[in-house]
TrEMBL record:
The keyword Signal does not apply. Signal peptide: none annotated. One of its GO terms (biological process) is proteolysis. It comes from Xenopus laevis. One of its GO terms (cellular component) is cytoplasm. This is Caspase-3 isoform X1.
Length: 286
């Protein structure tokens, strides 16, 4: 097939716009507008960004377990110290515009009631919900002060239409707890918004789970603080006004993986978010 030379293709005065566009389609260009998932660089499509233009960015619930009931102590679940982690979490989430609530040494029933009550609150003036858990744990649970509590149960009161004022908004869970007893010794690296149109969305939509460590592994800490929470707070502080959450969590992964040398730890996250999440109102920045 013979194609016109570039100069004649674009500059021939006898071609009208429709003819030019038809020829462009024929050789691989398209006249269709780009979809919202593929907006040109430098011109972000705000329909793919969660709306954070609220009076309050969200509610941040911190569940911190430091002392445990006698029967758990007898099983080897000892006291823990999270003094510095609590301080840093309260500081950064307050700075980002969250209401912070710290709840300490709660029983499993207490936690269930807390979450249920929060889900019943009116979140219409908030952009999202965040929950940070700090405790001992194993595999798919962490320890409340009296017994095991399934990690999956944290999100249950917020699924589907159970919490309508958070429908379509991000629900974020950060878990600082062991998920097993394997130790990662590392390897040596060679130096070389909701629309007005009615729609149905998945029940698990708009959740994010961030873990200190993958399933099966130990999570490291020193008295007063943990590698994961300290790295999370530091990366949020440095990046929350310029990067989206997934970029920030990737930097958390990098910091924990490379900045601690005696033993190794690899945080991970599972994102069920459907848009980019910035803790500032991105439409005001573009």
């Amino acid at each position: 097939m013979h194609f016109p030379e570039p100069q004649s293709f674009y500059n021939s005065e006898h071609w009208n716009n429709s003819e030019r566009m038809a020829e462009a389609d024929a050789i691989g260009f398209t006249s269709e507008k780009p979809d919202k998932m593929n907006s040109p660089l430098g011109k972000p499509d705000n329909s793919m960004v969660y709306n954070m233009n609220y009076k309050q960015k969200g509610l941040c619930l911190i569940l911190c377990m430091e002392t445990f009931h006698k029967d758990l102590k007898e099983k080897g679940v000892g006291a823990r110290n999270s003094k510095n982690d609590k301080k840093e979490l309260e500081s950064i989430f307050t700075e980002m515009g969250f209401e912070v609530r710290l709840e300490e040494n709660k029983t499993a029933d207490d936690i269930e009631n807390l979450l249920t009550d929060i889900a019943k609150e009116d979140h219409s003036g908030r952009g999202c919900f965040a929950c940070v858990v700090m405790s001992h744990g194993d595999k798919d649970f962490f320890y409340a002060s009296d017994q095991e509590y399934q990690i999956d149960a944290l999100a249950e009161p917020f699924r589907g239409e159970k919490c309508k004022s958070l429908f379509g908004k991000p629900k974020l869970f950060f878990i600082q707890a062991c998920r097993g007893n394997k130790v990662d010794s590392g390897v040596v690296k060679d130096a070389g918004d909701l629309t007005t149109t009615a729609c149905k969305i998945p029940t698990e939509c708009d959740f994010l789970y961030s873990y200190a460590t993958p399933l099966g592994y130990f999570a490291w800490k020193i008295p007063g603080e943990s590698w994961f929470i300290q790295s999370l707070c530091k990366m949020l502080k440095e990046n929350w006004q310029k990067r989206d959450l997934l970029q920030i969590l990737t930097r958390v992964n990098h910091k924990v993986a490379y900045d601690y040398n005696k033993k190794k730890q690899m945080p991970c996250f599972l994102s069920l978010l459907t848009k980019e999440l910035y803790f500032f109102h991105k439409t005001d920045q573009d």
